[in-house]
Amino acid sequence: MLDHILSIIIFLPLFPAIAFGVFQVNTKILKIGAFLSSSVTLLLVTWVVYLFDPHTAGMQFVENAPWIKKSGISYYLGVDFLSLTVLLLITLLMPPLYLYMKHEERKGYWYNMMLLQTGVTGAVLSLDLVLFYLFWETMLLPIFIMIGKYGNGMHQYNAMKIVLMTILGSMSMLFSILYLGYMHFEIVGTWSFALYDLANIIFEPQTSIFLAAGFLLAFVIKIPLVGFHTWMAPAYGSAPTPAVVIMSSIMAKLGVYGIWRFGYGLFEETLIYYMPIIAVLALIGLIYYAIRAITEDNLRKMFAYSSGSHLSLIALGLILTNIYGWSGSLYLIATHALASAGIFIMIGLLYKRFKTVHISELGGIASRAPKFTFFFAFFALSIAGLPGTGGFVAELLIIIGAFERNFWLGFFTATTMLAAMVYVFWMLQRTLFGPDHSLCKFKDLSKRELLMLLPLVFMLILTGIAPSLFTPVFEPQLSAFLQNAVHALGGVK
Question: Is the pTM higher than 0.90?
Fold first, then answer.
């Protein structure tokens, strides 16, 4: 089983969805099947984490078999410290989302979530660039359907906007992938799209700059860095809650994952050319998104901008090329995903009760629902870097890494924590403690809702008070990866 455990993890949610669709099962069976498949997948990933050896260099649990042999396309999977982090996040978040969707009766909703899990999992584990691209595109289709069919407001327009912008990036990445395979054919005499085969190709500097741009465009749109973000707030505002959670907690992180895996895996030397551009976009994003969050009245859009600010921070930490920046970025990928999932679930629960997510129409929640108030405030403050939560540890590491690189870079990076506290406390004061504008009854959290939220709270506190439980898992491979990147970059610190 271990020889194919990654394949099982990828396709376990998909095969039941196909079977349920063929045999036209009722909604109850579909719900049970989705939850069970996600739970079993989580157990398998937990097993992989247990067996994972942090001191072994390179990929583990590798599966590599020819797929389209003549074209050099292979079914090539593997996991290391980076993909393991994102993989664990995906599988941790799916069961709580299915608990949130318990009363959802539309079958298409469930089918799309199961397909989405397969798409994002496959993208994280793929080591063949064509295979990665196929999974990258696969995860876009369910999001398009969920926004376009099950969203609200201008949901069809917003669905088309996110698809068109994402396809723009995907096409540029596909061109670079095909050219890389062609260059391997020209040099070696055989086609190959395997990551580690292509990493050995040496390009002319100008060619490498254009090929790297193809990948980076796809990834900065997915993050999104400022300037490539116009789809973000409208999509978050229109999408149903489970889709928002996946976009914020997982898909946006895949943009950073892509820069890490393919930017440093294929174009290390070329990144010197793009590092100043990414740094400037990230610093502008830190401040711009924070200002937009302060002025935003819609809670979903407010935390969309908040996510943009923190994702800019992750991207900044990634290009610092020191152990503080890289450790902080990896840690923030995990902790922000948990906090972001928690706050968007809370906003979804708020909408079910009040039928609005506009701050100006909310208020008085603290006096009516103390349990709801605690969880809502906890997740919001976790995003802002509340001491004692994992977000604080991650942001502090990135800030230290920025100061090590340059004083003013560190100074402006540190403003993100202050800005986040400003917009989060301003929002909490009006939403939880402001005047009560609603006459409807506000039910506190049910046992089912507590069950789906408590694991997220537990993980955020655990990562905050005991980071030493997690750093030994990724630090050896992270340090080795960093040394290789710094060497390729010519000693950039």
Answer: yes
